[in-house]
Automatic annotation (TrEMBL):
Function text: Has nucleoside phosphatase activity towards nucleoside triphosphates and nucleoside diphosphates.
CC cofactor: Mg(2+)
Entry keyword set: Hydrolase, Magnesium, Metal-binding
Binding site residues for Mg(2+) 2: 105, 107, 120, 123
Binding residue positions for Mg(2+) 1: 87, 103, 107
Recorded catalytic activity of this chain's protein: a ribonucleoside 5'-diphosphate + H2O = a ribonucleoside 5'-phosphate + phosphate + H(+); a ribonucleoside 5'-triphosphate + H2O = a ribonucleoside 5'-diphosphate + phosphate + H(+)
Official protein name in the record: Nucleoside triphosphate/diphosphate phosphatase
Length: 176
């Protein structure tokens, strides 16, 4: 698998299980990249939805993608604290065109006080039937929801106390 260069601006492409594009983030700056992980950041980037509508992100965000875990984590830096939006998804791939993954509907939103909510279970059930998610995907996703909840409770990975400070400072340094 290709590895983007640190400092490079890349696109993020989210797909659905049926192969159709779901959402595209136009530009994310790569802060760290290995064969297994990409940490990126963006601020006020254009997002294009599958129906062609566009919008612009409102705040700086640190993005965490892993090649082995079935989730990715968007850490949104807001005035009242850090909010995390965790997408249950396939592990990412990078192919010189973009960071790509399959979005499996389920999301976990984590609030600045550490509380969290599992979202979109109804969307997951509907898409699971519509697109015929295999049973193995269901098992993998349930295990990864549990893993994500453990990470949240243990302050692991992007939930570690200094994660945002370190990577946001690096992002700001790259922009100067």
């Amino acid at each position: 698998m290709a590895i983007p260069k640190e400092g490079e601006a890349v696109q993020i492409q989210s797909y659905k299980h049926d192969g159709k594009i779901h959402r595209i983030w136009e530009e994310t700056t790569v802060l760290k990249a290995t064969g297994n992980m990409i940490i990126g950041a963006n601020d006020r980037t254009i997002v294009t939805e599958s129906d062609g509508r566009t919008w612009v992100t409102r705040e700086p965000a640190i993005c965490y993608f892993h090649g082995e875990h079935w989730f990715n984590i968007i850490c949104m830096i807001r005035e009242d604290g850090i909010y995390y939006y965790c997408n249950l998804s396939s592990p990412f791939v990078y192919d010189h065109e973009a960071i790509k993954y399959i979005d499996y509907d389920l999301d976990v939103k984590v609030y600045p006080d550490g509380t969290y909510t599992l979202l979109d279970e109804d969307e997951y059930l509907a898409h699971s039937q519509q697109m015929g998610y295999p049973e193995v995907i269901d098992h993998i996703l349930k295990r990864n929801v549990d893993k994500l909840v453990r990470w949240i409770r243990q302050g692991k990975g992007p939930f570690a106390p200094d994660f945002i400070d370190v990577w946001y400072e690096r992002y700001l340094s790259n922009r100067r």
